[in-house]
């Protein structure tokens, strides 16, 4: 097989679909013994949905998710600071942003790839270049394989990045985040709305995933978490029904993670080895673009493959993608800091500023985010 894709997350499976479309042979190696979705829900923004339309699976995703028609920013008591309707972009691209459970997204991707192309329980231990210019991958189960190309889609703590590109330390946002999914009847006002609510050193958000399911997250500064690690103790400013929603979520299904990203770095490709997605440009979740930027990586590679060989496509891909991907990392990091302000004066100033944000400016920012590269 020509290509080793290391990692069967969203980036790896989306890339596998693109390589399959281009008629390029590949194997996806996944470290876990079974593919279990990490996290709970995910928003697939318009830029990523355009890619999935290009790859032929947008309709399947629409059938499994819920349309997001408005993005709403509030305080923790759900008083509106700002709201952005997405109708303009729906009409422009003939696609909607959707919210979907990660397990449903993975199922669609797996079906499109074909499970025969995926090898499980293959945790990468070592990767070395061969004399002929390919790569030998050695796994912790003591098996070894050779491939001409290696593409690291193995996320924030990428073994491919560490083994071939150098040690780029993770950047700690000093925030922790709980995430959960449950069956819950949201008030009608939030039927097709993605909500994010900002407080002082904490924030939360929620969105419907299906008619029955709601996805929520609650994020606090690490110093607040160290003072009080019980989620319930941080919910006091939220409306009672939001508190009930979070408290009704089965505790064993709630995920708790620290937030990190990768400070932007150059060099995602060398000698038939390439990094995409979080392995190349992991971002904090503040813009909802982490997975979407990985999916955009695949789009650029897929379009380049219409004109060039795989080697030429991978060589050209970083120069096309790095400006936007790095901008997302920087903007998301900065927004995360503003969203977590604790000083009452600055919080009041922040909230007033977002209330007064002109519609044309928000539209311009969204346009920049949703527009795909012309390749």
TrEMBL record:
InterPro entries: FAD-bd, FAD-dep_Monooxygenase_BioMet, FAD/NAD-bd_sf. It comes from the Bacteria. Signal peptide: none annotated. Keywords: Monooxygenase, Oxidoreductase. Gene3D superfamilies: FAD/NAD(P)-binding domain. Residues 2-331 form the FAD-binding domain. It is an enzyme of class 1 (oxidoreductase). Its EC number is 1.14.13.24. The keyword Oxidoreductase applies. Pfam families: FAD_binding_3. This is 3-hydroxybenzoate 6-hydroxylase 1. GO terms for molecular function: 3-hydroxybenzoate 6-monooxygenase activity; FAD binding. SUPFAM superfamilies: FAD/NAD(P)-binding domain (SSF51905).
